[in-house]
Amino acid sequence: MTDFAYTYAQSSALTRRPEGDALLLAAYAENTPTAGAACFFRGQLRDPWLTARGLTTLAKVVASRFVPQSAALRDPIVTAGAGRLRFEAFSSCNGVYARLDLGPAALDGEFVQSGTTNVDFNEPMINALSRISRTEPVRLSVGQQEVTLERAAGHVTERKVTLPERWLRGLTAAQDYLSRMEERLTMSRVQATQLLHSLPAGTSRTDTYLVLRGGRPTFAPVAAAGAVRVGGAHRLRLLEGLLPLGETVRVYATPDGQASAMLLTLGGGQEFLLALSAEVNRGFSGEGTQLETLAEELPAEWLAGANNLFHSNETFNPTLFGLTHDLSPATVTRLCAHLSALGLLGFDLRENEYFYRRLPFKTERILSLNPRLKNARALLAEADDVQLVGVGAGGRTEVRVRGTDVWHTVVLGGAEPARCTCQWYSSHQGQRGPCKHILAAQLRFG
Asked: pTM for the complete prediction?
């Protein structure tokens, strides 16, 4: 697996000033030069103490590791645009996605231009955030090369950070799940806090279901009508320090139970989102839920045009976008899938719309970040690796596809979803996207 190395023109540093210390977090935007860095946002935080609590919770997510063999912690992505600042991160095991959104009501300043970068989250910084009081003024600026938090604090230095490929894959899967989620219930601060305290001690190794009993949310070991499946419910303890500060908590889930999320309204234009993968040992980076949509390539000029349009608009509603530009829903879905496969699109649950991340526009990453799709196209490069066996009643198509050691049988069409005899399909039953054999068969005969 390849990581993208980020080299900085200067180190992050916290220097003392008469009006307060300035925390300068070095950052890097891959597709922009290091000279003449632009400022994305500069201004004052209206409730810096609450913002610090949100960022501290985000840091807890980054440092969390629910699968022992997962890689070391990484650093958050910051996006400025559409009057908002969004701080995003994954747990080190990639099974938890978190985002702190600071809306216009949380910020007193100006957005000079839109942009995306990544910054360091380390212990000295976390300690600095924990010292922010309820009354002290805090100024924040976000740019291509640095994020500056002006307050009285200690000293911290960071020189280099890497952005792994699995984070880009995770961004694609997370936004796909979020875009398909439905709101299931709303809890008050008291209800949410009591619910979290009811979690059994230790690690949950089985599915837990969030249900309503007598109008009261509670956890249950078995599903019931309208229940929300929460895999690895102990991961919700990441919200312990933030739930008592929230106004309301909205619970969302995908119809198929493959992901769930809690959205905390913190007040003052601040929101915190925590999304969980279906199982503890299942990270967002390996889902492949959009592979079938990505299988059919789009003209490069379409992607470039859509990228430029979203680059300027920063947010969009797919339905309105399709109507405005006279595009079919299927075409809009494919555009969204291809751009999100590059990490360019995120999804806002409350607004029910996509937002744009200004990451590098490199279409070759679609294949590099989706090895199953790349392998499927490699199978098609060999004339005899994908063979039609026959077409039966109801459009049922049987295909033989060469595997590593044996031939696999793929069945397309008919009343049932596509299936394959390979080990991947046997293990996941299509819940983590199609295998390379199904993709190859669909590309040739679908």
From this structure: 0.84
Q: Which residue type occupies 314?
A: E
DSSP H or E segment with residue 428: helix 423-428
Number of helical (H) and strand (E) elements in the chain, helices listed first: 12, 26
What is the Cα–Cα distance from 279 to 282, expressed in whole angstroms? 5
Number of Cα atoms under 13 Å in the Cβ half of residue 176: 33
Contacts of residues 294-301 at CB distance under 8 Å and 24 or more positions apart, as own/partner, are 294/337, 294/338, 294/341, 294/366, 294/370, 294/373, 295/373, 295/376, 295/439, 295/442, 295/443, 296/334, 296/443, 298/334, 298/335, 298/338, 300/363
Residue whose structure tokens are 């922009």: 32
What are the φ/ψ torsions at residue 213 (nearest 5 degrees)? -125, 110
**Residues 125-135: tens digit of each pLDDT:** 777 788 888 88
Residue 103: name the closest of 119, 90, 115, 87 by CA: 87
Q: What radius of gyration do the chain's Cα atoms show?
A: 23
Strand partners, 207: 231
For 116-171, the pLDDT digits (tens) are 887 777 777 777 788 888 888 888 888 776 677 787 654 333 333 556 677 888 88
The angle that helices 371-381 and 436-445 make with each other, rounded to 10 degrees, is: 50
Element at 292 (helix H, strand E): helix 291-295
Cβ burial, residue 327 (10 Å; 0-12/13-18/19+): middle
Nearest residue to 143 (alpha-carbon basis) of 37, 284, 17, 268:
37
User: How far from 243 is each of 61, 76, 225, 273, CA to CA, in Å?
Assistant: 15, 21, 26, 11
Q: How far is CA 395 from CA 68, 162, 391, 412, 433, in A?
A: 46, 48, 6, 8, 22
Which residues, 6+ apart, have CB-to-CB distance to 343 below 8 Å? 167, 168, 171, 172, 357, 359, 365
| 127 Cβ contact partners less than 8 Å away, ≥ 6 residues apart | 153, 154
